[in-house]
Structure formats: C-alpha cells, structure tokens
Amino acid sequence: MHSEGTSVGGAGGDTASTGSGSTGSAGSTAGTSRAGVGSGGGSDGTGAIPGGPPPTPATPSPSGTPPTVRRGPVVAALMLGMALAALDGTIVSTAVPQIVGDLGGFAIFSWLFAGYLLAVTVTLPVYGKLSDTFGRKPVLIAGIALFLVGSLLCAFAWNMESLIAFRIVQGLGGGAIQGTVQTVAADLYPLKERPKIQAKLSTVWAVSAVAGPAVGGLLASYADWRWIFLVNLPVGAVALLLIARHFHEPARTKSPTATGRPRIDWAGALGVFACGGLLLFALVQGGVAWPWLSAPSLALFGGSALLAAATVVIERRAAEPIIPGWVWRRRTIAAVNLALGALGLLMVAPTVFLPTYAQAVLELDPIAAGFVLSIMTLSWPVSAALSQHAYNRIGFRLTAIIGIGCAALILLAFPLLPFPGSAWQPALIMLLLGGALGLFQLPLIVGVQSTVGWTERGTTTASVLFCRQVGQSVGAALFGAVANATLASRLADAPEAIRDGLPGDLDSVSHALGDPGRLTAEAADYLRRAVDAAVDYVYLGAACAAVLALLALIFVAPRRFPVINEPEDPAPLK
To answer: All domains of the chain, ordered by start, with CATH?
Structure first.
C-alpha cells in the first residue's frame, strides 16, 4: 500500500523492523520476516523475497522448523555477475592496440564499445519486464549464459567485424545482468538494509575501475588479448552455479483477475529495440562518420522519432507493455529517471575527457592518468554506504538534492584549475565528486525501488538504468561535439607564427598529442591550452547537467517518496 506522507526515520518513507532474529509462522509453513525466516537469529537470509509473491508452504526440516536459505551465496553470485559487466569495458579498452594489431579494423574499432553499449541499453527495459513476468532467476541465468557465450565467441573472433558482432552478443547478456542484479538486490533486502548490498555492488564497480586496466594490460602484454574474454568463463560459471543452487524465488500465484499465461509484448520489445538502437547509432556516428546536419544524421534522427511514435502507439494498446505508462505518470519514478539520465550525461566528462586532459595537459603517462580518474571510485562507494544515515533522517529527495548540488559546484570548480597545474588538483576534484555522486545516486535507486512492489520492481529498476545509459550516449555525442568545436575554433584562430606547426585537422590532434616532439615548443603549448579549454567547456556542460538533475528533483519529485510498507504488501504476480 502506498502512503505519500510517510517517512524513513522521519522524512523519506516508511520503515519497518529488520527482524533479523524473528521467527516465521509456526509449524511447517515458511513465514517471511524482514531478514530471517524460521527459528534461530543467526539466519543469513530468507527463502522468500520481501514485497514479493506470498510464499508457498515449505517442506519441514527434520527438526520441525521451516528451512532457511542463506543470502550470502546469492549476494556473492550478484557481485560476480556485476563484476562481469563492470570489468568488461575497462579490461577491453587497454587491449585495443593489440586487438587492432592482430585483427586490423582501426577505422571501426570504436564499435567494440559502441556495439556493446547499444545492446545493453536497448534491452534493459525488455529484461526488466521479463523479470517481473517470469521471475528474476530465469532472466539472470539466461543473461549470464548469453554473456558467456558472447565472451567465448569473442575469444575466437577472426576479424574486427566478427569481434564487434560477438561483442553485441555479450551486450545482449549484459543488459540482463545489469538490470536484474540491481532488482534482485532490492528484492533480497528490506529498505533499511538495502544500502549494504548497494555499497557492495558499488565496491565491485570501484575495484573494476582500478583493476580492469591493469588486468587487461597484463593479459595483452604477457599472454594474448583473447584471454581477456576467456577469463569471464570461470567467473560466470561460479555465478551461475551459486544462483542455480542458492537463489530460490517463491512460487508465484496468479491474481484473481489474471487469465491464461502471461503475454509478452514482443511488438513493443521490437519497437523499443529498433527505436533505441537507431537513436544511439545516430548519436555514436554523428560528428564522427558524418556531420551532424548531414543527410545520414537527419535520416537516422527522423527515423528514430517515427519509431518512437510507433512504439508509444503499440505500448498504449498492449495488454502487458514493455514500458508501461505508469513509469512516467508516477512523479517519483519520472523524477528519478530524469535525474539519473542527467547523471549519465555528466559522467561523460570525467570518464571520457579527464584521461585526455591528464595526458595532454598535465603530461602524465596513461597509468598515472588512469589513477587520477580512479580516485573518484574510492570515495563513491564510501559515500554511498554512509548515505543511509542522511536519508534516514532527512529523506531520499533532500539527500539526493544535497549530493547533486555539491556535484554541480565541484564540476564548476574544474575550469578554475590553473594551467597546467598539478595532478593532485584534478585528483582532489574527482575525490570530492565521487563523494557527492554517491550521496546522490544511491538514495534515488533505493528510494525508487522502495516505492513499488515485487511485480513492478524489475520494470522500475530497468527504466532508471535505461535512462542513465541513454544519458551517457547523449553526453558522449553532445560533449564530443563541444570539445571538437572548441579545438577546431582554437586551431583556426592560432597565431600565424605557429599555425603551420599545428595539426591541420582534428584527426591529427591525437597523433600530435601522442608525439609532442614533432611540434615546436610554442605549438605544443598552444595545443595543450586548446585541449585544456575544450575540457573546461565539457565540465561546464557537465555542471549544467547536474543542475538539470537538481531541477528534476526540486520540481518533479514529491517531497517525500511514497514508500511501500513491504511486510503488508505481498502483492501476487498478475
């Protein structure tokens, strides 16, 4: 049941006792508590999912008490599954030179990442709906299995085109992993305990950001780049084993109004996939393969708009739509979607442009440049883990407002850094930014997942992750255009005395930066200042994205999230 005026610890939403030592219903039935089932206060978890379908009677153990299921192995499986997706991008990026040297295809190697991103993004809503309809376990198992099949195929790719195709297969599995892991984490833990699992998942991303480049570099240098994909197999196999043996969803019962088998909105799924794929393809290729206002770009954007309109019509008529209208009609979910979309937008600045700034402007080597970026991943999970103390007192919305407000100020401070400056200055900014964004993102994810029941949680989680992924794609295109325009303007306005020594076009800038010895001292300094100005404008754009997220929380989000009182809401599947 929803209650708009309830609060978490006084402000954010309903709370319920954790009950880690409570007993279930007597005799042979398994009763769910907030964190334990059956007798014994030492139970690590439950066999039933909070807020999920009512559990069916369980077979009593020899002692006469209902059996319990430990959460530990399931959490380990979730962390391993998330590690597959988190390591994927960072570990592959360091091996690109070796991959290109072996397979060729330098002109299209960027699609190793763009193809994977496309597949993950456009499948997130589909997997979210499927997990609400058929359960989390089959979707998660299918996603990990598909990811491993794609990894195995990638290891045996014979040219760049085949490797890109197999990376798309990986992405089809990665979409199921990213969305379903977050949903299962919310299912397993009650509201007051969800920061624990979210902090663990954040730690996985942090460790992956630091360890991924090192592992990828070692494998590419001392073994073979194909091992980058083969190492996924044992990790995924362990995750599959743990999920198959230890993750037991309660039997789902149909609601009294449900008739027949659940229907899958395949037309809607195809529409979402086609529309999202065409839009992201236009964003990835625009300004790179062809100008933004060229016929190909206009045709792709026009086609994606038509497909979006057709998808809306299909979804309105569907009995069980992939993206239900309530995702945008409910103020809380709509506000979180907009806010996390803006988060994806602003994250392009540090993740894409900071390494270039560190190498071109600060003249750091690639390892040191990666360290400057990885500083953010140290403070983010710590801040996320501590955020519960804030939102338990002042609520989800206000905590997130404070976090994104601080992030906007920190991003605005980046253009104020001196030229060329020292490495500790951007590192400090990244440390503070990670702390601010941890305070912003986790309360929104925990809060929005707590406003829906089991049968809507997968769709809700997938919608916010989908918006964040789309924000990253839009940000990469938008800020790439800003950086390119700034560099082009600076090159065109260069003094006559050094103009001949500068790169003639944008494609030559990266080569010049990689071998600054080919430039005169004056030309190298001018080019470094041009890159510094371009990154400054990108960070100003990221600050604007943070302001957009702030406005969404202030004007769209309700003052208090309508948190569901989970113990009283065992909503059955429809």
So the answer is: 71-250+320-485+540-568 (1.20.1250.20), 265-319 (no CATH)
Strand partners, 37: 32
Nearest Cα neighbor of 404 from 342, 322, 328 is 342
Share of the chain residues as helix, strand and coil, in percent rounded to the nearest 5: 70, 0, 30
Asked if 213 contacts 91 with a C-beta cutoff of 8 angstroms, the reply is yes
Structure tokens at 439: 């305070």
Tokens of 71: 């959460």
What are the Cα distances from residue 65, in Å, to 13, 45, 384, 540? 34, 15, 37, 61
Exposed, middle or buried: residue 367 (CB in 10 Å: 0-12, 13-18, 19+)? exposed
Query: Helix, strand, or coil here: 561?
Result: coil
Rounded Cα gap, residues 348 and 477, in angstroms: 10
CB-based contacts of 40: which residues, under 8 Å, 6+ apart? 21, 65, 68
Give Cβ neighbours of residue 547 (< 8 Å, ≥ 6 apart): 408
User: Tell me, what amino acid is at 495?
Assistant: P
Half-sphere exposure of 17 (CA within 13 A, CB side): 7
Strand partners, 290: 286
Name 286's bridge partners.
290
Q: Which residues pair with 32 in a beta bridge?
A: 37
| Angle at CA of residue 143, ends 138 and 147, nearest 5° | 150
Are 454 and 571 within 8 A, CB to CB? yes
Distance, CA of 458 to CA of 377 (rounded, Å): 26
Distance of CA 207 to the CA centre of its chain: 15
CA dist 150 and 112 (Å) reads: 13
Residue 163 half-sphere exposure, CB side, CA atoms within 13 Å?
Answer: 26
Among 78, 77, 70, which residue's Cα sits nearest to residue 38?
A: 70
232 vs 155: CA distance, rounded Å: 10
Beta carbons within 10 angstroms of residue 389's beta carbon: 12
Answer whether 204's CB lies under 8 Å from 84's CB. no
Residues 189 and 449: their CA atoms lie apart, in Å, by: 11
Rg (CA), the chain: 25
The number of C-alpha atoms within 13 Å of 208 and in the hemisphere containing its C-beta is 22
* pLDDT tens series, the chain, 574 aa: 333 333 333 333 333 333 333 333 333 333 333 333 233 333 333 334 444 444 433 333 333 333 344 678 888 888 888 888 877 766 776 677 778 778 877 667 777 877 888 788 888 888 888 888 888 889 999 999 999 999 999 999 988 889 989 999 998 998 889 888 888 888 887 777 777 777 777 778 767 766 776 677 777 777 788 888 988 899 899 999 998 888 887 665 444 434 456 667 788 888 888 887 788 788 777 766 778 788 888 999 999 999 989 988 888 888 778 778 888 889 999 999 999 999 989 988 888 788 878 878 888 876 677 778 778 878 888 888 888 888 889 999 999 999 999 999 999 999 999 988 888 999 999 999 999 998 999 899 889 988 988 778 888 888 888 888 888 878 877 888 788 888 888 887 778 777 666 766 565 666 666 666 677 777 778 888 888 999 999 999 999 999 999 999 999 999 999 988 655 433 333 3
